[in-house]
């Protein structure tokens, strides 16, 4: 493909075919073909939103890998692997489930390489896994206090080896939780309606009640549960619940609830449904 | 370089075609072959890392040939950004320059930057009149942006405009019958007035955009511009596009018009630079010149010494200019 572009550029006096043979040999020797094929495969698999940034990062990672060598300091190497794993996880939103899953797989493979004896049999070390979940939460915009109760449930002990399926569940849980908290913040903003004043307590409780009901679905097939939940949290249901509260309490100036309390309450609903890792 | 959110439903080829990635890979390999001794001393992988980092940061277009600068929307926007960064001082000093002088400035960044493009931008500023007038930096900058970024779009609009003026139904556009009638009606009274009927013009441009594969300003912005006037001249339309904040933001290469001369980060760098020069006037090693952050001198393995020298000369020149005009 290089030759095609070069045909426009004036090359020196030597004949074109000799030049292009020379070029081919050079590219072959330098391993450019394999390098680019590999990069394109990775690119097409991940389909990042910013492909140029992806390639910049990809080649930089490769270059620093070969430059630092394999037996650099463990801690530095581990941090590098961790940030690369996090970068892979940030490439696709979790709702793009198949792309997200394959990125999780890449991140998992990366993290299994960390540590003094290279590979822990059975998976990623618990300490690294927990650290990664913490980073995921803070990258998702969660405050430490909001994320802590969730992390307590899904973290592993430092010495444990984390198998892929558990790893995947942990990552998805954190990603979904961060989204959920963002949504609940929007919900609070909508209920408060006026950004300077806190929202009415009664209204907040009505909304939280609706949310709780939506999360408590009956035990049937997954698809049916999704439908049931989305019906229960539909705008008209929320509006109905809020209207009922409005009718029963006529006075305007009731007690209020601040944003943090609302967020905590919403987070609690979510976290209560996350299974503790044992 | 915005991607559509449905990128996961595209085929591999469609995804790659959407991204210009193959274009950049081609160019990276061509550049590598051209300068193989120089670029391979740090390793081929490092070379590709530097190449794509500079594309990402937008400083890859500096000193490249015009065909490359023009090749992708990202390249065009990057070039405009660099032009603004490098010559903002001219605007700050309030200097007015002529077409040829702007052309020389552009050729410092891109040796074969064609005069026609500069003249096109000047025509927008001067409304196709008195082409030897001097222009302010910001007027020229935003017109250049429109001329350069939307070049193909402007060419097509010019054809439509001429057709409308001469009373022809624009043959480049599939015009619905109602518009055709409108157009005929409009032409009867158009004799004495300047320009063409905005509504008809707008319909024709919309028709063009629907099947246009190059960049064009958002339809809503075009509508907004044309709805405000009953009649519109070609250069009046281009001027309005050049002044439209929304279109400028969509391109994303330049700040808002009111902020065009403000860049505190760059000012600080410049002050440091001037301070350094006055302390050690003989020093000209590249490490003593931390300015021009956007230029690829940081990506040292990629740029030849020749290029580096040139940049230094340039920045020296511009600071001297600043000094002399302030005195």
From TrEMBL, chain A:
InterPro entries, per the entry: DD_TPGS1 (IPR047502), TPGS1 (IPR039235), TPGS1_C (IPR057632)
Domain Tubulin polyglutamylase complex subunit 1-like C-terminal per the UniProt entry, residue ranges: 77-275
Signal sequence segment: none
Single annotated GO MF: microtubule binding
Pfam family, one: TPGS1_C
Name of the molecule in the record: Tubulin polyglutamylase complex subunit 1
Originating species: Chanos chanos (Milkfish)
Automatic annotation (TrEMBL), chain B:
Ranges of compositional bias, category Low complexity: 278-288
Location of the region described as Disordered in the Swiss-Prot/TrEMBL record: 278-327
Keyword Membrane assigned: no
Location of this chain's protein in the cell: Cytoplasm, Cytoskeleton, Microtubule organizing center, Centrosome, Centriolar satellite
Record-level GO cellular component terms: centriolar satellite; microtubule
Basic residues bias: start-end ranges: 299-310
Protein origin, superkingdom: Eukaryota
Keywords of this entry: Cytoplasm, Cytoskeleton, Microtubule, Phosphoprotein
The keyword Isomerase is assigned to this record: no
Primary localization: cytoplasm
Ranges of Acidic residues composition bias in the record: 314-327
Family according to the record: Belongs to the CSTPP1 family.
Physiological role: Regulator of the tubulin polyglutamylase complex (TPGC) that controls cytoskeletal organization, nuclear shape, and cilium disassembly by balancing microtubule and actin assembly. Regulates the assembly and stability of the TPGC and thereby modulates polyglutamylation of the microtubule, which antagonizes MAP4 binding.
Name of this chain's protein: Centriolar satellite-associated tubulin polyglutamylase complex regulator 1
Source organism of the structure: Chanos chanos
Gene name, Swiss-Prot/TrEMBL: cstpp1
